[in-house]
Design the sequence.
C-alpha cells in the first residue's frame, strides 16, 4: 500500500490495484508485492519453465529486471525514486540481495552466504536478511556509503533475525527468534539499539511494517501455546491488539497485517464474520484516535482555536508556542456560545482529566499544568492529570506550560493532547499563551486556594468510561 491508499491485492495469480473501490488489473504478472506513491508496481511473474522473473510495472507496461547473471529473480520493494530491491538466484541453492536502479541490477553481497533484500526507504537504505553461517540468519542494513551491516538480534539467546521494513528515519522492524526458547518476538532497530516491542501475551510475533511516524504494525499470538494470530499496532512504547480498537459492533477478526502508510491506514487480512471467509481489509484511523491523528480546530477566531461539538476522550491538537490555555464551552453549545441541537442541559461541561500529554516533543518530557493561574503540578507524557482527584472538582479552564522547544504554530501536529469531559460531546477553545503570561506564572502553592466557578458543581461531575473507536474496517 502507498500513501495515497492504493492497495495491491492478489487474486488467483492476477493481481490488481484497488483504489477506493476502483480496480486496475496488473497485466502480464503473477504476483505483485509493493506499489510506490507514483503507482509503480514491483513483483514477480512466472516465465518459461516456471522460472521467477522480477518486474517493474508502470503505465500499463511490464519491464523485466533480469537475473544479474543468475537463473531467477523476484522484486519485493520500490521507493519513490524508482529504486527496486529483492533477491536473485545464482543457483537453486544460492541467492543474494539486489538493488536495481537506472536499468542495472547490482549484487549487494551477504554477511556470509545467501540473503535477500526486503525493503528500501527513500534515502536508499536497504534491509533484509543474510546467512552468517549454516543455521544462523541475521537482519542487515545496507547503504552505498557503508555497505552491509549486521543488525544483530534481541540478545545472545536469539540466534536468528530478519528485517522486513525500514522508514525514512532509518528505523527498521522485523523479528528475532530463538529455537531454544521457542519464541519469535517483534523487533525494532533504531539509533543503534535493538528493541523488543513486547507481545500480546504470546510468543510467536513479528513486526512487518513501520511508517514515517514510527508507528509499527505486525501480528502476535495471545497465549504461550500458539493459537490464532492477532494483528497489532505499536506506538509510543505500547502494543495494542487492533481487534480491541475497532468500533463496537464491527464484525471482523483481524489476524495479520502487511503494511501501514503515513496516514496511519493499515492493510491486512482477517475473518469477516458476516461472510465467514478470510478477506483483505483496509483500516482508516478515526480522527482523534491517537497522538498522531488528532482532531483539529473547526475555526480560528481572535487567536482562539475552537473545537465545536467534539467527542469526549479523544486527542485534540492546537498550535502553540511555549504554552497554551484551554477554555470549555457550555454543554450543547459551540465554543462561541451558539446552541447546538436544542437547549443547554442543567449540568455544565467541565474538563475532568487530561488523559495524556504528548510524548517525543519536549526535552525533559515534563509539563506544568495550571488552574486559576497557579501550578498544580508537573506531569510527564501519558500521565493522567485528574482534576477531580486533585482539586475535588472539574475545571472550566486550565493551561499547560513548560514546553522547552518552541512549537511551530502552523504545524497541525505540533502539540496534541488527550482530554476527558463530563459530557459525551462538548465544545472548547484554546489559544497560545504570550511569553509574558508564561513568565508571570506563580510558583506552586496550596491548591486549596484555587477557586473557580467549577467548585459549585463538584457534586455534578461524573465519569463516563467510553471505549474510543479508532478505526473503520473496510473490505477491499
Sequence:
Amino acid at each position: 500500500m502507498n500513501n495515497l491508499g492504493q492497495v495491491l491485492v492478489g487474486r488467483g495469480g492476477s493481481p490488481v490495484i484497488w483504489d477506493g473501490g476502483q480496480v486496475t488489473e496488473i497485466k502480464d504478472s503473477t504476483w505483485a508485492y509493493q506499489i510506490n506513491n507514483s503507482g509503480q508496481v514491483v513483483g514477480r511473474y512466472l516465465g518459461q519453465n516456471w522460472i521467477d522473473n522480477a518486474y517493474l510495472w508502470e503505465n500499463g507496461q511490464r519491464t523485466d529486471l533480469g537475473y544479474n547473471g543468475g537463473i531467477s529473480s523476484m522484486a519485493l520493494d520500490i521507493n519513490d525514486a524508482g529504486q527496486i530491491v529483492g533477491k536473485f538466484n545464482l543457483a537453486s541453492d544460492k541467492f543474494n540481495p539486489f538493488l536495481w536502479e537506472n536499468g542495472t541490477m547490482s549484487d549487494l553481497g551477504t554477511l556470509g552466504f545467501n540473503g535477500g533484500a526486503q525493503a528500501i526507504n527513500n534515502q536508499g537504505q536497504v534491509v533484509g536478511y543474510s546467512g552468517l553461517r549454516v543455521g544462523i540468519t541475521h537482519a542487515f542494513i545496507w547503504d552505498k556509503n557503508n555497505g552491509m551491516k549486521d543488525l544483530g538480534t534481541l540478545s545472545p539467546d536469539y540466534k536468528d533475525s530478519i528485517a522486513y521494513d525500514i522508514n525514512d528515519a532509518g528505523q527498521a522492524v522485523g523479528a528475532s527468534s530463538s529455537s531454544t526458547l521457542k519464541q519469535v518476538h517483534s523487533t525494532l532497530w533504531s539509533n543503534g539499539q535493538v528493541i523488543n516491542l513486547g507481545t500480546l501475551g504470546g510468543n510467536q510475533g513479528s513486526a512487518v511494517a513501520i511508517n514515517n511516524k514510527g508507528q509499527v504494525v505486525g501480528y502476535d499470538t495471545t497465549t504461550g501455546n500458539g493459537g490464532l494470530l492477532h494483528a497489532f499496532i505499536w506506538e509510543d512504547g505500547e502494543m495494542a491488539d487492533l481487534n480491541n480498537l475497532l468500533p463496537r459492533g464491527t464484525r471482523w477478526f483481524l489476524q495479520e497485517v502487511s503494511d501501514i502508510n503515513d496516514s496511519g491506514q493499515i492493510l491486512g487480512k482477517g475473518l469477516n464474520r458476516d461472510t465467514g471467509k478470510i478477506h483483505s481489509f483496509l483500516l482508516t484511523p478515526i480522527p482523534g484516535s491517537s497522538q498522531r491523528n488528532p482532531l483539529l480546530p473547526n475555526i480560528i477566531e481572535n487567536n482562539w482555536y475552537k473545537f465545536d461539538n467534539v467527542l469526549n476522550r479523544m486527542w485534540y491538537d492546537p498550535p502553540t508556542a511555549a504554552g497554551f490555555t484551554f477554555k470549555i464551552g457550555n454543554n450543547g453549545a459551540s465554543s462561541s456560545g451558539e446552541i447546538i441541537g436544542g437547549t443547554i442541559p442543567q449540568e455544565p461541561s467541565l474538563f475532568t482529566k487530561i488523559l495524556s500529554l504528548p510524548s517525543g516533543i519536549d526535552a525533559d518530557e515534563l509539563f506544568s499544568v495550571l488552574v486559576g493561574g497557579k501550578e498544580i503540578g508537573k506531569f510527564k507524557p501519558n500521565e493522567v492529570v485528574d482534576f477531580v482527584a486533585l482539586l475535588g472538582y472539574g475545571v472550566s479552564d486550565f493551561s499547560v506550560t513548560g514546553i522547552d522547544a518552541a512549537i511551530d504554530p502552523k504545524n497541525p501536529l505540533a502539540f496534541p493532547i488527550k482530554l476527558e469531559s463530563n459530557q459525551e460531546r462538548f465544545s472548547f477553545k484554546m489559544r497560545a499563551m504570550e511569553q509574558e503570561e508564561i513568565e508571570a506564572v506563580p510558583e506552586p502553592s496550596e491548591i486549596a486556594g484555587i477557586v473557580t466557578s467549577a467548585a459549585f458543581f463538584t457534586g455534578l461531575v461524573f465519569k463516563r468510561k467510553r471505549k474510543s473507536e479508532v478505526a473503520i474496517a473496510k473490505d477491499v
